[in-house]
Every structure is written in C-alpha cells, then in structure tokens.
C-alpha cells in the first residue's frame, strides 16, 4: 500500500506454500491467489503475473520490472514451490527478447518546480529519485498534492485517486500484449482443462495421455490474474474441469467474479503435493463418463 500511494515501482516474488502460518514449510500450494489480487489497505492499481514454468518465470519477471517502472505500481510475480525449486532442462533463454523500460524516470530536471505527482493524461508522473539534479522529491505515506505535500482536503484527495486510476486502461492494454491466456491442444475438444501456475506441466502431460486414448483435450492456462484478461470465455468448451492446488478453487472464484462463469467440475489437491498427470486423467474421464 505504501508503494502504491508513493507511486514507487516495486516487484514482489510471492512463492506459495501451504498455510496458514508455517503450514507445510517445505511443500507447495496455490492458496495465495486472492490475497495477491485483493489483499491491501485501500484501493490501487497492481499487476499479478502467474508463470507456469522456468522459461515463463524468466521472461515474465523481466516484464514485471518493466511494468512496475512504466506505471509506477506494485507488480507481483506469483509462483509456488513446485516451480521455483524444480529442475528442468530448457533452451538457453534468448535475452535479446528482453527490453529494459524505465518508464518516466528522469535523470535531471530542467523545468519549473518539480511535481512528483503531476497530473498527466495517463496518470503516470515524471519520476525522479532523491538526489536527482534540480528536483526536490517529497514523498510519504499520506495522501498528497501534486507537489507531494500532505493533504486531507476533499477535492485534492479525489483528484489524486482519479489520477492514479487513470493508469488502469493503459495497464490493461499493456498486459494484454503478454499472452495473458494461453491455450494448448485441440481446437475442437471433448473437454477443456483450465489451470494456472505449476498445474501447466502435469496438465500438458495429461493432455498427451488422453490424446493417446482418443480423448480430444484443450488446456487453458491463465497467466495474468490482475488485471483479469478478456477473452477467456471463447476458450471454454461445453465440458470443463478446473485444476488447482488449493482447497477453495481460488482461480474459479476469480473467474466467476470477472466473467460470471462457474465450474461444475474441479480437481483440487491441497496436501502440499502437486497434482499428477494420472490424477488429471482420472478426473477428466470421470467428468466425461
């Protein structure tokens, strides 16, 4: 919340494990999704990215820093122990695909009095850091004026909240370019599996096993949780099953909140162990029976 009101770019890597409290300290889970998306003091813009394997962790983390700097907001990279402590062989990452975008960061201020929270069309203000030549940076945890002075007056408060929320449409446009939803498998499936994060690996393996048994399957991976992407409904077939490593189907809740769609079939595991391909195959066959 403090980073949000100061409009400071910050990237947080949230590696999930079973809770509450210490829970299973060295096992895996997906129980922090709604916390990452909604947990906060006050309302503000944030981005939540959910990579599904090592390669996605690398490239989405790079994008997380770009997005944080571009929009001066918190960005959360949501992983779990199954991803961050697993070993897999991957192709060498092509770092030429990684751009470094510093957004509205300024190295020297040559204008009139510097306004850290200047009202702009897209809500993003020129950002100087303490020590920038000719720029006096005022920032604290209180609501403030464009200059950075504390205020509790009604109109400046409303204007500053609106200023921060003007970033929303621009954030959505940028995250929409990052393949927020990926699909794998059949274009005409008998059933669609939906999941996120570390369910990707076993889901793709289960899809291959089912294909060998004559079952046409699609897997839909949701990679960006906030802002929630458009277009999910076009990928859902008549029969669907949601797979998650938690007790309450948190992605299912998020999908219902954003689209109104409810899953009748869910495959959940919440004992600290990842879902296996065989479990997914069994659940799909149960649904199709």
3D structure, described in words:
This protein is an alpha/beta fold and 289 residues long. It has 2 domains: 2-100, Thiamin diphosphate (ThDP)-binding fold, Pyr/PP domains (Rossmann fold); 181-288, Rossmann fold, CATH 3.40.50. The chain has helices at 2-6, 33-38, 54-71, 81-84, 154-165, 168-175, 200-212, 250-259, 277-288, and strands at 10-16, 47-49, 74-80, 181-185, 191-195, 217-222, 224-226, 240-244, 266-268. Helix 7 links the parallel strand 5 (191-195) and strand 6.
Please outline what is shown here.
This protein is α/β, with parallel strands linked by helices. It is built from nine helices and nine strands. 35% of the residues are buried.
Key descriptive features of the protein:
alpha/beta, five-stranded mixed β-sheet, single chain, Rossmann fold, elongated, four-stranded mixed β-sheet, 289 residues, 9 helices
């Amino acid at each position: 919340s403090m980073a949000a009101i100061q409009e400071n770019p910050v990237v947080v890597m949230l590696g999930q494990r079973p809770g509450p409290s210490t829970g299973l300290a060295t096992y895996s889970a997906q129980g922090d999704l709604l916390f990452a998306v909604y947990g906060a003091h006050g309302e503000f813009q944030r981005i939540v990215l959910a990579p599904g394997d090592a390669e996605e962790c690398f490239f989405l983390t790079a994008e997380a820093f770009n997005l944080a700097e571009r929009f001066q907001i918190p960005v959360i990279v949501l992983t779990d122990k199954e991803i961050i402590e697993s070993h897999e062989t991957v192709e060498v990452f092509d770092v030429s695909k990684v751009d470094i975008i510093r957004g509205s960061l300024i190295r020297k201020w040559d204008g009139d009095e510097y306004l850290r929270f200047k009202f702009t069309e897209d809500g993003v203000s020129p950002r100087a850091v303490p020590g920038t030549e000719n720029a006096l940076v005022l920032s604290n945890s209180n609501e403030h004026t464009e200059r950075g002075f504390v205020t509790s007056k009604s109109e400046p408060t409303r204007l500053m909240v609106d200023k921060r929320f003007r970033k929303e449409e621009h954030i959505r446009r940028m995250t929409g370019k990052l393949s927020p939803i990926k699909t794998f498998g059949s274009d005409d499936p008998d059933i669609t599996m939906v999941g996120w994060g570390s369910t990707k690996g076993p889901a793709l393996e289960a899809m291959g096993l089912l294909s060998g048994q004559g079952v046409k399957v699609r897997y839909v991976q949701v990679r960006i949780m906030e802002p929630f992407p458009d277009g999910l409904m076009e990928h859902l077939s008549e029969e669907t099953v949601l797979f998650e490593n938690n007790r309450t189907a948190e992605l299912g809740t998020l999908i219902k909140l954003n689209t109104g769609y409810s899953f009748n079939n869910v495959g959940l595991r919440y004992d600290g162990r990842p879902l296996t391909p065989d479990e997914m195959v069994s659940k799909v066959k149960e649904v199709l029976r």
